[in-house]
Structures are given as C-alpha cells and as structure tokens.
Amino acid sequence: MRGRMALLLGLAMLPAGAIAMQVGLNAVNAREAAYEEQLGRRALQSISVERSAIDEVREMLRVLSTTPALQQIETVDCRTWLGEVVERYPYVAAISISQDDGTILCSVPHVPRNYQAPITPLRQRALARDAFTIGYVDRGALTGQPILGAFEPIRADGRRVGFVGASISLSHLRNVLDRSRALTGARSAIMDSEGRVVVQSAPQESDRDPVGLPSAEQVRDHLGPDPIFVSVENGSAVIVPLFAPDLYAVMSWPPERPNWQRWLALALTLIAPLVIWALAVAAGWFAIEVFVARPLSSLEGAARGYARGEDVADPPALRSAPEEIRSLRRTLAAMAKTLRGREARLVEALAEERALLREVHHRVKNNLQMVASLLNIQARSARDDSEAWGLARAHDRVQLLALVHQKIYSSGELRELRLDELAAEIARQLLQSRGASAKDINLVMQLDEARADVDRAVPLTFLIGEGVSMALDALADTGPVEMRLFVQQDADGMVRFAIDSDIDTERAGAPGPGARLIDAFARQLGATIGRDPERPFMHWVCVPPGATA
Question: Of 1, 64, 306, 411, which sits 20 to 30 A from 288 (CA to CA)?
Fold first, then answer.
C-alpha cells in the first residue's frame, strides 16, 4: 500500500515532468520520422531508372504478345524480328517465344527449333499467375548466365498458347545501381520476393564499416506496396517495391549520426523528468509512512483485538496520528462493545429458543403417548375383531408420531433427523406391537446413513410405517418368513427405501387401506412408488431431495 500510494502521489505531483518527457520523446520520434521520410524520397528517386527499364521490358513484351501474326512467322523471319528487338533494347540479353511446356519455337540467340528449356520456378509462377511475371533465374536457358527473366502470356482465340520471354542482363542493372550509389551514397540492391539478392552495387574502397543489406527473413516479413524501413548492420535500409510482388529495390545508408549520440540524446530526454519524479515519490512515501501507513497499521492491530473480544489501549502510533484516525479508533471501540453485548444476548436467546422447542417436542410426545394408551385401552375392550384391529392401527400411527417427536428432542438436532435410525425404530416397534402373530417373521434391515429435515419427518415416518405395517399384516400367521427393509441416500440427496419379502402371494390376503395412505404421503413428498404386480405388498419409494411436506 505504501509504495502504491507514494507512486500515485508522485504521478499526481509531476504532470509537468510527464509532459516534458512526452515532448522530448515526440521530438526524437519526429527527427527519426523526418530522416526516414528523407531516405524514402531518395530511394524512390534513385530507382526510377530501374523501374523505367522494367516497365519498358513489360510494354515491349505486351506488344509482342498481342501481335496477330506472331504464330505465323517462319523461323528465319522470327529470328530476324526478334534480333531487331534485341538491337533496340541493348539491356535485353535474350528473347524467345515458347510453349507452356518450355519448348522454344524461336529465340535470339538461336537454339535448335523445338529445344526444350527446363521448367524454372519463374516459369511455374508465370503458368500459375497467367500474367506478366518477372524474377531471378540462376541459369538462363539461352544465355547460360544468371539473369532477370520476364514472361508475358501469348493468347489466341481467348486462350493461352505460349509465352514471350526476355532476359535482362544483370551487368546492365549493376551499372545502373553503381551510378545510383555514386549519386546518393547508398548501397543499392534488387531482391526478389524470396529475399535473394538479384544484383547489388559494387562496394567502395572508402567503406571501412560497410552498411549491410536486409536478410531474406526481413524482406519476406516486410513485403508490401509501401516503402518499409528496417535496421541492418551499420545502418538503416528501406525496401521499396520495384515490381510487386516479384521484385523489390533495397537501399542501405549509414546512420545519420553515431549510435552513441542517439542514445545519449534519448537518455537526456528521459533522465531529467525521471529524477524529479523519483524525488517526488520519495517525499510522498515519507509523508504517507509517517501520517497514514503507521497509524493505519496500529488501527488494524486494535481492530483485531476488538474482534477477539479484548479491550485494547491506544497504541503509541495512534497518539500522534491525525484526528480523523483517532476518531475512527474510538468509533471502532464503541462498535466492538455494542457488538459484544448484542452477541451475548443473541446466544442467550438462541439457547432459550432451543430449550423451549425441545420442551415442546417432549410435551407433544407425552400427549401422543397418552392418546396411544387410551386407544390401546379402547382396543382391548372392543366388541369385535374389526373394531379392535382399527383401534390397534390407530394406536400404531399415534405411537409413530410420538416416536418422531421423541427422536427430535432426544437427538439435540432441531433441523435434521437420522432417517435410518428412525426407520429401524419404526420397524422394531411395529413388529413388537403385532405380538404372537409376528413371531415367525424375521426382520432383516440394511440401513445406510440417511438424513432428512424435520419438516419432512412426519410424512416420511408415516410413509415408512404404513409400508411396514401393511407388510406385517400380509405376512402375519403365514409361517416362517423373512421381511427385508432397505434405506439409503444418494450423493445428490435422493432418499430410497424398500420393503421386500420372499412370500408367495397365494399365502397373503388382499392389501388394506394402508396402500392408499402410502400413495397419499408419497404425493405429499413428491416421491415415486414402484410395486411388483405379483407381490403388491412389497414396494420401493424414491423421495427427491428438497421435497417439502
């Protein structure tokens, strides 16, 4: 914090320094831009001779390719005609008329008719482009020397029938570049789109540290229609399109002034504002440290003490702090005292509420047990078995309600219940209530840990209890039999329980009203029930998480 605040303060105090730095950088950049603009103009002026020569060759080839009688010329007449062209353009070392496959029909200098010239990359580009193409050839088919070759397609009836090609002498181009260097003092070269040097001016004896040319990678990375400036060894270079995208002219100049002078000027432009800025940052840091950072650190320590419930005395750093920080410390102390009092009252109120709620559940459980006892007495004095059976089932249901409330207050948990423990207690209690009629039933329980919130405890209890009760009624007096109870809870909160048995349906009676109660409680919980048609007393239930009663 200290460093950032000091930095911001220093920047706020030094707008003039930032402006001065920007003005200095702008001046340096403007000087560099003016120098590059001057070099660009000189480069464009110096390549006018090379460009005019290429334009002249292109125009000459275009005229030849569009001559209607070109394909009707006999070999002798063709050579005579082409010889006149070579005499008119002294920098043209050779000229030829050829087919697409390189077969030369007529040429100067002369080669046997139907001579097959090798397919060079330049001819391949001309075939693909189907337009005027110029480029460097390591070995000319007619001259046997490195040349600057050019091709123009010949068309008849709207289709290409061949090419007229010309070879420009590299010695002529070198003489042009030497004359240009004598005028501009720059090292000149012509390079193709691959970055290869086609021809370059001869070095001068006065060059102690000769300026270099751009590398092939620099040329390939800076191809375009506009002049581009790049740094080269001992100087700067400008790449100018001579005939884009095939040929580019390159001119390299030594630097306007030594590098150390350029770096010194840039350093002086930056150092003065930086020194002033550093002094301002140091002053701001000292002020922030003494009047803000140290008092705030002490205030933070006092706040941590208040959070732990301690009474903290004023640290020495706060005694000399600004009045605003001391006032904030007093406010924190008063707020901590108020919060401690409120926290104590909340803890006390929460304890009373939990105790009252547990007492409510305890009394409800006692009242339900009293009702269950009355129902049990009434069942014993019933006049027939049907009335006794109904009162006994009512006793079981009231007893299940009492069991739920007992679990709530005895567990100490007022939000959740262990559903697996509740299911086990329900099954055991209902099995004991059947007495001798269920003595041959072997209850097998497979219970995984499962939890349910208190709001769903009552419908879940009745759902499990009615299922177990209906199964016990069906299995009573059927002889030795095994009844299985399963309870589990998935990771996503889905509660699953099932009641199963290996009883044969022919040995059991029809399902009672418990099946309707099970369906009603399932709808209340949003649960899904599955039953086996051949064993209607056995079922499984899936209760989704978050379902409310």
Answer: 306
Q: For the domain that residue 200 is a member of, what is the CATH number?
A: 3.40.1840
* Long-range CB contact pairs, 46-51, < 8 A, 24+: 46/180, 46/183, 46/184, 46/186, 46/188, 46/251, 47/180, 47/240, 47/242, 47/249, 47/251, 49/176, 49/179, 49/180, 50/173, 50/176, 50/177, 50/190, 50/242, 50/249, 51/242, 51/243, 51/249
> Mean pLDDT in each 10-residue stretch from start to end of the chain (549 residues)?
62 65 66 62 66 83 77 57 80 86 85 83 89 88 86 84 87 77 71 83 67 81 77 81 83 68 67 71 71 71 68 64 71 76 80 74 76 77 75 78 76 73 84 77 84 80 82 74 82 84 57 75 85 75 69
Q: What angle do CA 8, 9, 15 make, to 5 degrees?
A: 90
Same domain, 269 and 231: no
For residue 351 the two structure tokens come to 């304890």
Strand 247-253, strand 416-418: pairing: unpaired
- What the block records as the tokens of 505 is 């349906």
**Pair type for strands 187-192 and 197-200:** antiparallel
Same domain, 425 and 543: yes
Please give the model's pTM, rounded to 2 decimal places.
Answer: 0.43
Q: Are residues 63 and 80 in the same domain?
A: yes
Q: Is residue 218 part of a domain?
A: yes
Note whether 144 and 206 are same-domain residues. Answer: no
φ, ψ for residue 300, nearest 5 deg: -65, -45
Distances (CA, A) of 188 to 174, 183, 197, 230: 9, 11, 10, 14
Q: Dump strand ranges (E) for 15-146.
A: 92-98, 103-108, 115-116, 133-137
Same domain, 110 and 155: yes
145 dihedral zone (left: phi>0; alpha: psi -120 to 50; beta): beta
Do 60 and 91 belong together in one domain? Answer: yes
DSSP secondary structure letters along 357-405: HHHHHHHHHHHHHHHHHHHHHHHHT-SSHHHHHHHHHHHHHHHHHHHHH
What secondary structure, in 3-state letters, does 268-300 show?
A: HHHHHHHHHHHHHHHHHHHHHHHHHHHHHHHHH
